[in-house]
Amino acid sequence: MTQKQKKVVVIGAGAGGLSAAVQLARQGWSVCVLEKEDCPGGRLGALESEGYRIDLGATILMMYDVFEQFFAGLGKDINDYLSLTRLNPCYHLNFADGSRLSPSTDLKHNLDEIRSLCPADVEGYLRYLAQIHRRYMTARYEFIEKPMTRLREFLNVKTLAGLMRLKTLNNMYSDISRFVRDERVRMSLTFQSMYLGISPFQTPSIYTIIPYVEHAHSGIWYPHGGMNAITHALVRLLDEFGGELRLKAQVEKILIENNRVKGVLCTDGTTIAADIVVSNVDFPNTMRKLMPEGSTGTYTQARFAHMANSCGCMMFYLGSKQKYDNLGVHNIYFTHEYKKTLDQVFVQKRLPDDPAVYLYAPSRIDPDVAPAGHEVIYILVPVPNLAGRVDWEKEAVAYRSVVYEKLERAGLPGLRQNIVFEKSADPTVFAERFNTFQGAGFGLAPTLFQSGYFRPGIKSKKIAGLYFAGASVHPGGGVPVVLVCGRHVARQIQADYPV
Ligand SMILES: Cc1cc2nc3c(=O)[nH]c(=O)nc-3n(C[C@H](O)[C@H](O)[C@H](O)COP(=O)(O)OP(=O)(O)OC[C@H]3O[C@@H](n4cnc5c(N)ncnc54)[C@H](O)[C@@H]3O)c2cc1C
What we know:
The protein is α/β, with parallel strands linked by helices. It is built from 17 helices and 19 strands. It starts with 6 loop residues before the first strand and ends with a helix. The model has no long low-confidence stretch (mean pLDDT 95). It binds flavin-adenine dinucleotide. Flavin-adenine dinucleotide (FAD) binds at residues 11-17, 34-37, 42-44, 57-60, 195, 250-251, 280-281, 313, 380, 434-435, 441-442, 470-471, 477-479, 482.
């Protein structure tokens, strides 16, 4: 049978599902992507209403080279699909004492900025940069770029030596504290763990590579139209390679016979036969909801109850009739007590008294995402996921006021009066809309024992023809990493089913 005759069903049109689908379609497989919503993208989706186009999840494009390579690997030029601008400064960091830091990809600028906060930390920042490049290269090429489907890929001299080099036993905050002393500078080099939905006080220190990627490696980029433009590009590629995308097609069960996939059953009762199934649904929920009883191997309900998950998000998607000139595209508002706030979310698992807020305002540089003279404002507050101690029905409304009051005090006066469009989401919405386990935002937490070979893998060990793509499987979360995951899946399928 040729690949064209062999059928792949991909469940979910998130970045991971679309990445796998595009590569497989290009390899010649007959590919059908089934997405339960009426639009593709998942956490790389957008809401479009009343002239506003607001990204739902991902907003920061980093590891630009991964995107460039992704398109190049398909024989395409990224510039034919996306219009990209590098952001300088990368973001504006607003501290509770009123001071500010705006790191960029310009080293001298960063040194001046750090000097203005704490002259003694300039030397420490340089020492941090000097040692981190090697760790980044190890993380990227010994771990992210390897599919980790076999134990020997992990347990070999090179990888183990790499692991030692990564010095992952420390946490991110204590690792950065070896280099810089000022709490604000420490915050500026550790808050990035929140991109993965975990506390820098619990995150393996390897994630100190993220500020390096932002400041010194490839920077932060903005795709015209917002991050959702990447989803549009992936859908266009899928179409060009002859793949099919079906919207409003929710899968209820993966059909399995004699430990081999047979296809999927949709909630409308239709059955779609397939030789290969790739699930892009959050891995724990693929196992918990889509797999027939007895076919999940070691991934039992009890096991998931003990796995570390990422935090949830409280989101506000706003249209403001007033523009705020003091905003950049990416803005962070820190709290008075960094550790206390993070411990309230990650240890006590309750809503923090003083929320840390990320605010994204793409209309600062992109007139096409809002009506003329209006601002798009996206607010993200890290909160516990549904395993936490929050009663969302009771607490969400009051917490909205806490968040808005903070922002109004921090430089967005009259914000609430200026809102002409508003939608919100909390982990209960995430559980429903994105079908994520415990309504978490970012997938299984990348703790040491949920990383590399120890993370759920891209290929089922029990069921032939079943593969997984997405943030909760290796190599992990974040749009560029999930795109790499899709590529691993396609290559693995090609290796398992050669023509
Ligand atoms: C608030 C937020 C901010 C983020 N910010 C960034 C950022 O700035 N930069 C960055 O790189 N990353 C960011 N991320 C992470 C990034 O968005 C994710 O890692 C990535 O988009 C996950 O892609 P995925 O393919 O794994 O899953 P998803 O995007 O969740 O895709 C899964 C898809 O499956 C569909 N689906 C679920 N169940 C079914 C079913 N039964 N049948 C059919 N379809 C189904 C869903 O509707 C969805 O479309 C952010 C995430 C969040 C939540």
